[in-house]
Amino acid sequence: MDEIRKWFYETRADETVKNLRRHGFDALQVPDRSAACSEILKRIPSSKTVGIGGSVTVREIGILDKLKGQGNTLYDHWKEGLGPVESLKIRKAQQSCDLFLGSSNAVTMAGEIVSVDGFCNRISSMAFGPKEVILAVGRNKIVRDVPAALARIKEVAAPMNARRFGLNSPCVQAGRCVDCDSPERICRGTLILERKPFATEVLVVIVQEELGY
After folding, report:
1. Beta-bridge mates of residue 193
2. Is residue 37 part of a domain?
3. Which CATH number do you get for residue 69?
4. Is there a domain that residue 149 lies in?
5. pTM for the complete prediction?
6. Would you tell me which of 51, 71, 141, 203 could form a disulfide with 94, CB atoms 3.0–4.6 Å apart?
């Protein structure tokens, strides 16, 4: 990354971290996915049960094998071979684990965390249940404000995630949100965390790489 891009993304992240902290969240920025993995791993002792959100970013930073290696119990509904019933049980278990590890669709420079879900297990676990939430967020998800966050989700994250799931929803066909009523629509619940929830400690780790969708 050249110096101009480095300055640009780090300056945006600095403001985001400052405002997240002002709103009661914990937040930091790291230079790359390896540093993100290390920072997160040192905050998760082997005794903790960990819910794993349906997150590409979490997989990209390479932390899951390390958590398994140190003996953590993981509740991961993306585990291969799970049927619908087993997957649903794991999603519910994520709501009562010690720590929830995932990502968000967008974080604003004003210090808000914005997420949209289909099953809504992720946004439920982020808001209430686990005592701790850690969110790894690529620099590509940093936006100016809530309207920009919602626009990013509809125009970028939703079509790409729907394609990843192998769906044939209208946004996959159009490459953008059309606010559909399709049974395959994945945008069904929205969570905007304006401040830290009373009963939940939330850490946002901003990674100076493009991660997730």
Report:
1. 113
2. yes
3. 3.40.50
4. no
5. 0.95
6. 51
| Residue 203, both tokens | 């850490």
Instruction: Measure the CA angle with vertex 137, ends 133 and 141; round to 5°.
Output: 130
Residue pointed to by tokens 């819910």: 51
Q: Which domain holds residue 201?
A: 3-103+117-143+196-207
- Give the closest residue to 24 by CA, choosing from 205, 148, 204, 206: 204
What pLDDT, in 10s, does the model give residues 38-52?
A: 999 999 999 999 999
Residue 130's pLDDT is what?
97
Beta strands 106-108; 113-117: pairing state:
antiparallel
- The tally of domains found in the chain comes to 1
**Rounded (5°) CA angle 160-116-192:** 140
List, in sequence order, the alpha helices (H) in 49-188. Answer: 56-60, 64-69, 84-94, 121-127, 146-152, 158-164, 170-174
Which residue type does 22 have?
Answer: R
Strand partners, 132: 99, 201
